[in-house]
Amino acid sequence: MTLPIQRHAPSTGSNLFTLHRGTTPLLISFPHVGTAIPEQFRHRLVERALAVEDTDWHLERLYSFARGLGASLLVPATSRYVIDLNRPSDNQPMYPGQNNTELCPTRFFTGEPLYRPGCEPDATEIRERVATWWQPYHDALRGELSRLRDAHGHAVLFDAHSIKGELPWLFPGLLPDMNIGTVSGSACDPSLRQAVEHVFASQSAYSWVLDGRFKGGHITRSYGRPAERIHAVQLEMSWRAYMLESPPYAWHDERAQAVTPLLERLVAALRNWAPQ
């Protein structure tokens, strides 16, 4: 039986995130699906930012089948434009030598400024945002992984993402449909990495790469600790696999239906895997 949904709210009374507690070792994190921008920030952003174009659109809907497979789900409400839950709280770049978005982003994925001139957050405000939005999410993430490990002997974290397939400011050329990250194998047991690789190697409908441009963000790097019986895998999926890549970034029924069986096989492989 699935445990009740746990809702956690900040002092403002609006939800920070929703935690659905499942019955298997698998937790799926969706750090970039939130779209809410608190009122105190909206006037400082350029008008374009209010459409939150760099959201990981529709992922909670796309992975809705995961509840039926017994997975836990952690879903934030707030936009990554307020704070990026998949960046370290000290704002160290994820990919040195390349363009990176920040802990509190100041640019769109296309490189243009998010804020009106002089309205960017300063160091004090960034610390406040960490305390208000970043820390509670990571406390919940850490707590649920501990619960799953205690209950099952191990935990598997799947960090689910999506992105527009062409973004020259962030990466050259066209991104493969499916971009799996295990931090070059350090974030999970080799047999889990092989199981994930097998899922994608067994199909030909979608292009894929393992530990390419997106090797894993802060969540995969920080929580993937095989020696501590917590294993992490990230998937960065190109939008074109399930939605339209131009505004209003709409869900595409035919594409979503086509890709869902592959995602079901992936989630099942993550759920069913156990250490040797």
The second-level CATH architecture is 3-Layer(aba) Sandwich
Helix content: 25-40%
Mean pLDDT: 93
Largest sheet: 8 strands, mixed
Q: Hey, roughly how much beta strand do the residues contain?
A: 5-15%
The H-level CATH homologous superfamily, spelled out, is Zn-dependent exopeptidases
Apparent shape: globular
Tally the structural domains. 1
In N-to-C order, the SSE pattern is EEEHHEHEEHEHEH
What would you report as the Rg, rounded to the nearest angstrom?
18 Å
User: Roughly how many Å apart are the termini?
Assistant: 27 Å
Q: Could you characterize the architecture of this molecule?
A:
The protein has a single domain (6-272), classed as Aminopeptidase, CATH 3.40.630. It has 6 helices and 8 strands. The chain has helices spanning 39-42, 59-62, 123-152, 190-201, 218-223, 253-272, and strands at residues 6-8, 17-20, 26-29, 72-76, 155-163, 178-181, 208-210, 230-238. It has an 8-stranded mixed beta sheet. Helix 4 packs antiparallel against helix 6 (253-272). The radius of gyration is 18 Å and the shape is globular.
Gist of the model:
By secondary structure, the protein is α/β, with parallel strands linked by helices. It has helices at 39-42, 59-62, 123-152, 190-201, 218-223, 253-272; strands at residues 6-8, 17-20, 26-29, 72-76, 155-163, 178-181, 208-210, 230-238.
Which descriptors apply to this entry?
276 residues, disordered N terminus, alpha/beta, 8-stranded mixed β-sheet, Aminopeptidase
Please outline the helices and strands.
Layout (H helix, E strand, L loop, with lengths): L5 E3 L8 E4 L5 E4 L9 H4 L16 H4 L9 E5 L46 H30 L2 E9 L14 E4 L8 H12 L6 E3 L7 H6 L6 E9 L14 H20 L4
Parallel strand pairs: 3-4, 3-5, 5-8, 6-7
Antiparallel strand pairs: 1-2, 2-4, 6-8
